[in-house]
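In the current project phase, the collection of sequences with tokenised folds has grown. A sample record is quoted in full directly below:
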Amino acid sequence: MSKSDFTDIVETKNKTTSQTVKKDEPKKPQEYDPGWSEYILDNMSDNELIKGAPTVDGLRRATEKCFGEILQSKSEIVEVPTRQNNKCTIRHSLVIRKYSTESVIEVDGCVDVLYDKIPYPFNTHLVATADTRAEGKALRRALKIRVVTAEELQNQDEDDVMASEENMNDQQVLALNQLCKRLDVSVASFVKSQYNKVKVINDVSNMEARVLISQLSGFQRKPKSIEKKIKGYDDNWKDDFYRGS
């Protein structure tokens, strides 16, 4: 075999391997695709999620990794907290150059924070708390994702965020799915192991969903406590265990 023939074989093999790798890579969803929110969460590390909800720091990093370059990020205090109003209002503005189109977009997020709705010690730092939440809201709007940040959830009265008598919401479905995926836990098997009468995940109540998410968060701390019968995450679990709206 001549040297040129050997080189051609190597080049052809490398080209075929390269094409195979590209073919196996998952396709990046578009902003308007149903899987967009999940894609953004998939690109966040474990320490950037609290009970499946993204932190503002995590969203900021994921934005620049998956969506666009943040050209400007600034906050404006709309209402300064005083002893009379015990309230802070902040508007956070973002200017982002999207990777997909090179177009520049501007997005705002405005948040009110009330002293008596924030637990100690956060209620002694209303401006900082409002600033973080406003940035998170602006990032969520820019990304067009159906989630609430961990900062918005963990420091508020839960009754203001979600009513326990309602059914499980989209935020909770995303959080539970994200935790199961990272822990390699079957969504359907796990849910049914706790609530065996559930036919689809939409039958789970809001309060029950909170319990499930807390249990999964516990598994993150103690992964050895995961039973074998619920192991094995399935990407297609929604085909049989989810009722679309």
